[in-house]
Predict the structure.
Amino acid sequence: MNDRMNFRRPIKTWSTPVTEEDRRPIPCALCGGGQFKPFLSCEGFSYVQCASCGLVQMNPQPVLADVERRYRQLYGNDYCVYELKNEAAFLDLQKRALDDAGFDRLERELMERTGGKAAVLDVGCATGAMLAFLRERGWETTGVEISPAAEYARNERGLDIRSLSLEDCRFPSESFDLALASHLVEHLNDPETFLREAWRVLRHGAYLMITTPNIDGFQARLLGSRWRSAIFDHLYLFSARTVKAMMKKQGFIIEGVYTWGGLAAGLAPTPIKTLADRAAKVLALGDVMLVKARKP
């Protein structure tokens, strides 16, 4: 087959198998509305869009107990293996995203403010690769991870990792200068409660950086239900507008949105992928986005 025609179905993000779980209708997590329209129909599950604010969500939604059981018990070890296998590539992507968001300047600001004792909290830290990297740069590090990957981070890297939800950790108010949440918020039943708790544990002038798939990105628009981030574990699919609105609702000031990824590897020949990646970055149509916000 001619290379120009060698388009393949992209590999989706790791996900737990679609299972029968207790699902209940919920109001929109952003505006509280109760009117929804069909958005994406996938194999065994589907997404709707709020008619009022446009937030894309799985609704009816699996209940919290079933969602947590997937990561803690049923498929947690599989997830840990996946993260360990890919952690070098994932860390590289995270570091590039932080560079786009001006991390070096942010780091200097916070280190100067704290006398070199800036504290970072990584929620959904997986095997702790990012925390280990930041520890080497002088950060005081704490992580939150409910899957068995937390055991690896604690035992192999000696990191302080709490195997609870952020709310259940009960950190003292205003404990951290930076909070990271990479590919987490779309998995949460209640992202608004997470943001409220993040606000509480961050100091004034601290930063929150959220990385999540972009439903307005080029890939999502092109592929629809075949998009690699339209998976059973993603209870929400955010656009820049909806995630910013949710963060602003809790009081955060948005300082920037950065996107990347035009086409997934294997979806198109390399020259086309390279052009698509560049265009997606310039046009803010990337497959993934990082939102940088500050607590005033």
User: Anything to note?
Assistant: The two ends are 56 Å apart (CA to CA). The chain has ten helices and 13 strands. The chain has a mean pLDDT of 94.
